[in-house]
Amino acid sequence: MPDLAGLELLLAVARLGSLGRAARELGITQPAASGRIRSMERLLGVALVDRSPRGSRLTEAGALVTDWARRIVEAAEAFDAGAQALRDRRDSRLRVAASMTIAEYLLPGWLIALRARLPDTAVSLLAGNSAVVAGRLLAGEADVGFVEGIGVPAGLDGAVVAQDRLVVVVAPGHAWARRRVPLGAAELAASPLILREEGSGTRAVLEAALGGLARPLLELSSTTAVKSAAVSGAGPAVLSELAVGEELAARRLVRVPVDGVRLRRELRAVWPVGHVPAGPVRELLSLTRGVR
Amino acid sequence: MPDLAGLELLLAVARLGSLGRAARELGITQPAASGRIRSMERLLGVALVDRSPRGSRLTEAGALVTDWARRIVEAAEAFDAGAQALRDRRDSRLRVAASMTIAEYLLPGWLIALRARLPDTAVSLLAGNSAVVAGRLLAGEADVGFVEGIGVPAGLDGAVVAQDRLVVVVAPGHAWARRRVPLGAAELAASPLILREEGSGTRAVLEAALGGLARPLLELSSTTAVKSAAVSGAGPAVLSELAVGEELAARRLVRVPVDGVRLRRELRAVWPVGHVPAGPVRELLSLTRGVR
DNA sequence: TCCACTCATAAGTCCAGGTTATGCCCTCAT
DNA sequence: ATGAGGGCATAACCTGGACTTATGAGTGGA
Fold this sequence. Notes:
Two copies of one chain form a homodimer.
Chain A: H1 4-16, H2 19-26, H3 30-44, E1 49-52, E2 55-58, H4 60-86, E3 94-98, H5 100-105, H6 107-117, E4 123-127, H7 130-138, E5 144-149, E6 156-170, H8 185-190, E7 192-196, H9 201-210, E8 215-220, H10 223-231, E9 237-240, H11 241-249, E10 254-256, E11 264-272, H12 279-287
Chain B binds a DNA duplex through residues 5, 18-21, 28-32, 34-36, 38-39, 51-56.
């Protein structure tokens, strides 16, 4: 498997059309780039670029590989944006506190966008549940928070930035995967489901929607664990749409239509009452808009 | 930025609860794993695992980082599955020919699933347009093909494995991003759009749906280029749902509702008439089912 | 014809990540 | 209590891969 730097180099070559220019962009020398691409080609057993005295173009296979590589690099950018913010920096100009779901799935993307607009703004991130987020904001230790849940914690103002929809998902082999008739509330409540543990936000929304009745088939302590169990066919699971986007796209999971159940929750930006968002906070919030 | 091996190690530690066990799984020694995790922690400036004489558990930050890392590693697995198949292996037991869109977005996932079921089956991949795929199959140089388009090429039998829907997308800042009233065919045909070049499958489907009338705002030669142009706000684009799933999830693009335009095409598995799928081909096809 | 660009090759340096060897800490079972 | 075993850390050493600089060779435009 090639390493991340190699993949970035490949993307740069694709974009710039020359090994030398790509090398310069990444701050290495042309022979280094040349050798690196060559070693990737050896590794993969496929020619990736057509070299000519006038530049380098991707081969057919190279284009395909580059597209696959782009996914990896994009995920790495999200990782990096998140990781940068996670490191504790006292001099941060924008201190964000966010719930797990938001920190996990949405925030990295927002941070990438923010970095494009305010490259010099140091951002720090603290992840925790609603109470922790509220506490940090009220203590003046964070400038803006993001929470998922029914209401706005006391002492805070907020604005809805996104809707999180819970979805019922099953592995493609499950009988429900071919189901066209939507599940009703009664049927859903009667079915054993793979769920987060009692007390989690996701579980709370589900039980509110069903009227307190959810039969756990399995109780697991993380979104990831629930997802893996569902993918491996253990049964139907209820998860945030955000968490299963990729699995649905890759058909590792199939969404089951549901009717008559209110499986939504609001994702809100929050800040202390009176602190009208300004500066970097305002900028960040503007990135989260345009969302239904 | 940590490297892929480091991230995999972190996932293994999360899963197995011990540095030593994770090290063993990856075929390295315990001190190597210990040092690697430590260097990642130094790099990120955050403690990732709580070490104890009874094992290692992720810290809060570690859990977050691990979830971000999982995305990268999953993308890397898709890359690897694709790359393995791309390398020309004459002894392959399953030779697949696929159109670009399918090879790019769907096939890696299928190959991962297939590898789980038939770990010893060598798969080779050739990407090309419908005509190339048909040619390979008829020449006996491929065992199964995947094409996108209106019909099944002559001499082949096929089965629909997925629906590809084209979607109209804009950057979140665009006026259409807030639009609730669906666009009609007339309005869409009258609007300048970012499109693939004349002759591409995507463009063909769009023009068929609109009755031959599409006004290009920009004509670009790859899906990726169209996507970047749309993301950067150049205007509305029409793209396969498969291509923009991630951008929609991250809100880098917003889907514009459309009404009264048939923007679908079938993705089909194909094989020579009479060659009933059997063995690995049958297995691969079974993975692509359960899809609407 | 010469310059400006491309890429490839060669030789040398250096460090990251691996290894083995060892020690400490904790827990559990004898 | 006491050893066995699992878990982690540290130290010393080795090696290979990836970088650098220096150079050459092909192509195309001024």
